[in-house]
Design brief:
heterodimer, A: 505 residues, alpha/beta, Rossmann fold, 3 domains, six-stranded mixed β-sheet, 33% helix, globular, B: 336 residues, ABC transporter involved in vitamin B12 uptake, BtuC, two-stranded antiparallel ribbon, two-stranded antiparallel sheet, 13 helices
Chain lengths: 505, 336
């Protein structure tokens, strides 16, 4: 089936503000193959795809299409070549029909009027050819996410695309929808269409792909042929640690069960089934790591505990008291929350450190006369700056212009002003430089020493192992594994999150 | 059971609201001569609905792109006053006067479009500013008496008087409304431009990726609105037989209200001009009925405002529910 090389990227370099993201990357897809692209978060997968689709320009290197060198400077360029990128429901227009979406901007016409009969017929032909469960005249509003993705695929096929790029196509699909997609992928391959398949889910990759390129730290780590795609090997290659698991990737966990239970979560279940029957406890002075893949439901669980979103059922107990979670109640009970999306949810960029710190703490800022005491606000900001070394140390500085690490310190700082019982941090060091990372770990450890219970949600395996006293792993909305007082390695955590059985325990 | 299409459902709801209102006023204000339910009065209602419906066609196009136009009332005044100047100070024929009015409307719409679509000024503030500018320009070119006091300019040309009337009770403004609404509906549903409007309103990013010129699509919607406003201005001055600086004062609310009641979502991407027509008829019925009941007209505005808020709240909750259901069911259907 797989024939000549369809697209080849050679010696690709790319850096952002001096930080190299891709170095001498080689990537090649043959006609009619499903080629998987894997790597940990930040390995450079999406950067590589964005270069191929013309969203980013490469610093160096060359791209060949069917053997001829090409320049791809815009998404339109790559469309003209015959590349279609399947975004997750991003580019379907809900009020239009399936056929209208497929031929959007290219509608067949009779005079000035759209020739609906012809358009629907052309769409039907495509649907028949690839056996998609769709009807041309259905309004997209009435379709599920899986079907919306199929429309994207149809759109690509209607333009005679030879290469489809699918970035985490199953992330928001149900099991059945995913199975339907897999069948269609097989069908497309047999029709000679090439597919670049990007997924965190190893089992899909094993099942579908003919070849596999693994990136690690922006470099080629391996290109595997079908027979060499073995779970343990792939995980090792992605993490980059050889079998003996050298320092940093293994850790002995120490969790003290005898310490008093601070947080007790009982059977928390989501309204839309993103997580179910979640039960766990966090003890005084313990840092609990919550591991798993993106989309496993971790963020949803901690948001429900803090009360940003309401769970359908289940209970949250703090220090033996049942809570009715809402952000305001949580703050007053002594729960702090550092959200994943720092810039949009963590702080107010246009306000100063003073105001950002005070915002969560107006119940404890002193009142002078009828208004808030400026002096007390300032004093509080100064305490925060001193406690965790926020730089610049100017309390009047707008937080929006500070570095990522210091922004995160401001977010943490406002919680440190309170008498915390529980602190939840979601991806605490995403986009933060190494030095500031260590400082943030230090802050978390100090809090734990003072008796605060800490929950750390992170997709960074190194970080998970570095800070956690105990680890629980979620997968597709369930807690699938707990690591407690045992030796743990990155690959064990990753395997649990992937749903891959570790054979040699 | 086959689930009913969301759009069809919403259409039935707006028709239902109109019917309920008509029945309600028939009960409260009675049927027969001089009362609410009789041919003469109902034709009056349709005539009152015509101008908001005509202008509503353009405004609907804009709202479908997720935009808004607050300047239509002032624009109407400026078009009317331009024609009054030509009528008062030149000997140009009646047809040239109307053409000049239409041209001013197109130009105003073009200005709005450039401000909003090319310079990316938020629609709300951009058209709020031109609302003020167009109104001020109307005052600047207003016709004054010997003492410099603004006066109302009579426009009693025989052709113009004729245009303000119709074939008996079938007023020309109603005929114009039917033509413009029909043309608007055809453009929306059967041309690429119509599809582009929905695409831009649903997702500017997706539209761009599909090769649609988003700025041009939006700009044209404002120009079309300029045209419909000019047509509205012609019929308004023809009916009043004069032009004043007060024409179209607070009018901009009406076409927007008509669109919203008719199911055109302010968030863009849905609705059509038939819906807006139903909305315009609903608002006109409301005004007429309240008048027939001799309720203080000030209450009319309270009721109108309250209805708009209720409809928007309803649409938001209803849409969220229907979307969720549709997705769930759609996902199931796709697998069978």
């Amino acid at each position: 089936m797989a024939g000549n090389t369809l697209i080849e990227a050679k010696g690709i370099y790319k850096s952002f503000s001096g930080v190299p993201v891709l170095q001498d990357v080689h990537f090649e897809v043959k006609a009619g193959e499903v080629h998987a692209l894997m790597g940990e978060n930040g390995a450079g997968k999406s950067t590589l795809i964005k270069i191929i689709t013309g969203v980013y320009t490469k610093d160096d290197g060359q791209i060949f299409w069917e053997g001829k060198p090409v320049e791809i400077n815009s998404y339109q360029d790559c469309q003209k070549l015959g590349v279609a990128c399947i975004y997750q429901e991003l580019s379907v227009i809900p009020p239009l029909t399936v056929a209208q979406n497929v031929y959007l901007g290219r509608e067949p016409r009779k005079g000035v009027f759209i020739d609906y009969a012809k358009m629907n017929q052309m769409t039907q032909e495509l649907i028949d050819k690839y056996q998609f469960p769709l009807k041309p005249t259905t309004v997209v509003d009435n379709l599920g996410i899986g079907q919306r993705q199929l429309i994207e695929i149809l759109k690509g096929l209607s333009q005679d695309s030879k290469l489809l790029i699918m970035d985490e196509p199953t992330a928001s699909l149900s099991g059945k929808e995913a199975e339907m997609l897999f069948k269609i992928i097989q069908k497309l391959r047999s029709e000679g269409v090439s597919i670049i398949y990007i997924s965190h889910r190893l089992e899909e990759v094993y099942m579908l792909s003919d070849r596999l390129t693994i990136l690690r730290d922006g470099k080629n780590a391996a290109i595997l042929e079908k027979q060499d795609i073995i779970p343990a090997k792939v995980i090792e290659t992605m993490i980059g640690k050889v079998v003996d698991e050298s320092a940093g990737s293994r850790k002995m966990l120490h969790s003290d069960d005898s310490a008093e239970v601070r947080l007790d979560v009982k059977n928390l279940t989501d309204k839309t089934d993103r997580y179910r029957n979640i039960s766990f406890q966090v003890h005084r002075g313990e840092i609990l790591g919550l591991g798993g893949l993106i989309g496993a439901g971790r963020t949803e669980v901690v948001r429900a505990i803090y009360g940003v979103d309401k769970a359908a059922s289940g209970e949250v107990w703090l220090d033996g008291k049942k809570l009715d979670p809402s952000p305001k109640a949580s703050i007053l009970e002594g729960i702090g929350f550092v959200p994943e999306d720092r810039r949009n949810q963590g702080f107010i960029p246009l306000l100063s450190t003073i105001k950002n710190v005070a915002l969560t703490n107006y119940d404890i800022v002193k009142i002078s006369g009828t208004s808030i005491s400026d002096a007390d606000e300032l004093a509080m900001a100064k305490r925060a700056i001193q406690a965790i070394d926020i730089r610049p140390a100017d309390p009047n500085k707008q937080v929006g212009v500070m570095s990522g690490g210091n922004q995160q310190k401001v977010v943490l700082g406002k919680w440190l002003m309170r008498d915390l019982k529980l602190l939840i941090v979601d991806e605490p060091t995403a986009g933060i430089d190494v030095g500031a990372k260590d400082e943030i770990y230090q802050i978390l450890e100090n809090l734990a020493k003072q008796g605060v219970a800490v929950i750390v949600v992170t997709s960074d395996l190194q970080e998970l192992l570095r800070v956690s006293h105990r680890i629980i792993v979620m997968r597709k909305g369930d807690i699938v594994k707990e690591f407690k007082n045992v030796e743990v390695t990155q690959s064990k955590v990753l395997s649990a999150g992937q749903g891959v059985e570790e054979e040699a325990e | 059971m086959k689930r009913m299409n969301q759009t069809t459902m919403r259409r039935l709801i707006s028709i239902g609201m109109l019917v309920i209102l008509v029945v309600l006023f028939t009960i409260l204000a009675g049927a027969g001569k001089g009362k609410f339910f009789n041919f003469d009065n109902l034709i009056e209602v349709v005539r009152d609905a015509s101008i908001p419906a005509i202008i509503g066609v353009g405004v609907t196009f804009i709202i479908i792109t997720a935009g808004i136009d607050l300047s239509t009332g002032s624009m109407m005044a400026l078009v009317g006053m331009t024609m009054a100047n030509i009528y008062a100070y030149t000997l140009l024929p009646f047809s040239v006067m109307i053409l000049a009015g239409i041209l001013v409307g197109l130009l105003c719409g073009f200005c709005n479009g450039v401000i909003v679509a090319k310079f990316n000024v938020p629609e709300f503030i951009g058209t709020l500013a031109t609302m003020s500018i167009f109104r001020a320009m109307t005052y600047i070119i207003a016709i004054r008496d010997a003492n410099g006091v603004i006066k109302s300019q009579p426009m009693n040309h025989s052709g113009y008087t004729w245009l303000g009337g119709g074939f008996g009770k079938f007023y020309f403004v109603i005929i114009a409304m039917i033509i413009i609404v029909a043309a608007g509906q055809i453009i929306l549903k059967y041309t690429r431009y119509g599809t582009n409007l929905y695409s831009v309103g649903a997702s500017k990013k997706a539209a761009t990726l599909s090769g649609i010129d988003v700025a041009k699509t939006r700009l044209i919607a404002y120009v079309i609105t300029g045209f419909t406003v000019a047509v509205g201005a012609v019929f308004t001055t023809a009916r009043l037989q004069s032009a004043t600086t007060a024409i179209g004062m607070d009018f901009e609310f009406n076409p927007i209200a008509a669109a919203v009641v008719g199911g055109v979502a302010l968030s863009g991407g849905s609705g059509d001009v038939i819906g807006t027509l139903i909305g315009a008829l609903f608002m006109a019925t409301l005004e007429n009925g309240v008048r027939k009941l001799s309720i203080n007209t000030a209450y009319q505005y309270v009721i109108k405002g309250a209805i708009i808020i209720a409809v928007v709240i309803f649409d938001a909750t209803y849409k969220a529910r229907m979307d969720r259901k549709a997705r769930e069911e759609g996902a199931k259907e796709g697998l069978e």
